[in-house]
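Recall the central idea of this unit: under ordinary conditions, the amino acid sequence of a chain determines the structure it adopts. In this exercise we apply that idea directly, starting from the sequence alone.
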Amino acid sequence: MQKQAREIKPVNMAAYGCGDLFAGITGTTLGIWIFYFYTTVVGLSPIEAGSILAIARIWDGITDPTMGYITDNTHSRYGRRRLYFLIGIPLTLSFGLLWIDGFGYAYYLLTYLAFNTVFTLVQVPYETLAAEMTNDFKMRCKLTGVRMIFAQSGALIASWLPAYILQQYDDEGTAFLYVGGILAILCMLPWFFVYKGTWERESQLQRDSAPFFKEMKKLFAEMFSTFKLRIFRIHLCMYVGAFVALDVFNASFVHYLTFVLELDKLTIGNLVTLLAVMQFAGTPVYAYLCMKYGNSATYRVAVIVAMLGVILWTITSSFEAPLMLAFVAAFVLGSSRGGIYLVPWNIYNFIPDVDEVLTSERREGIYAGVMTLTRKITQAFSIMLVGVLLEYSGFQSGADTQSASAITGLQVALLGGTAVFLIFGFINSFRFGLDHKKHKTLVGEIERLKAGGNLADAHVEAKSIIESLTGWKHEHTWGNNNVSHASRSR
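Accordingly, the structure predicted from this sequence is:
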């Protein structure tokens, strides 16, 4: 356990955090601009554009959990997780292929599938690192905060740069070609530093090889086993509520500004950038609130602020409101986004600890695979939802103006869709019960059991906490169940 006890210095925190520049850049660019690029620049219909992401999610359903399982079972001189950062360094340039104009549906489908595979290759092992590097609650919160600052920096770049370049070129196809090339290079740079500045706990897994199909059967059994953990189910509800809300908003935002508010490119670029600036500025504030008041309370604060922003956008689109109100709405909604993005990923860092007390195993990789898959599914669902809504409301790809029904469709997507999912996440946050005190008790119990302690000798408070977090009777924890493959084998 020597690696686990290593001191995490500021340089290590920065090395860990910079990896999320990749997700921040790519997630924001895809969330805000890919639907616009496909429908307005390339000329795909909303249904075609949405179907690309839907098909990619089917592919992700195989690759994401597979990658999680692979990283849990990798043994190399470069580590279980960190090996894949080295492999992914040149492959991340594939992001630039998404933004080349002049091809057909098949090209954009294949390039999107290829990039998503690369994303899985590096992002799944990356998501395990905070849990690998330390058991300390506050240090994991700090790591997540640093990670989110880098992610929001990437989001700021991905919000400002496309808008700026689009202002410089009349031909949007040329503009997006430059956008894709520049951002692809920025996506590649962080992974060397992540590899050099982070570490993993020593693997205790020594599994014999088995036939491929048997391994795949085992893999998907492991993937679905994560849903047997109560705290993870609640976490996913909060995660889906927050991320789908913002994905729906992002997917329809540029169209909304263009066709509903009829704003020029400069103003649109300024509003998109303001959202990202406020998201960046809010991240350290919400990281502090997580450490001070806990994850669920911080999550609710962020959702309430976001709902206020939705109300302001509703006023902006429904009345003859001055343009300044749009900037106020962007300011308010943007200030909530740092918290909405940060809290679910901060919670995730503690899920493997709860799983360990249930299964007696460390399964960060499989949880990372499920989380990455869930993220991609939610983003695809959001864009597909917006695509279907616009298709049936009469939205015309490539048109300079839209019909009244298409305008209504954009309003329903941006305002109604965002609000519904925010409320869903808000309600589920009251069911989440893991805080600093409970986590400390949980880790202490795990260490006692690892040292050879008897399960039945646990303190009554520890038993109650473990049962509430896992959803299992205490006597059926610590591997005395059929949750994981190892447990089923025993």
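Residues 352 and 363 are 6 Å apart (CA to CA).
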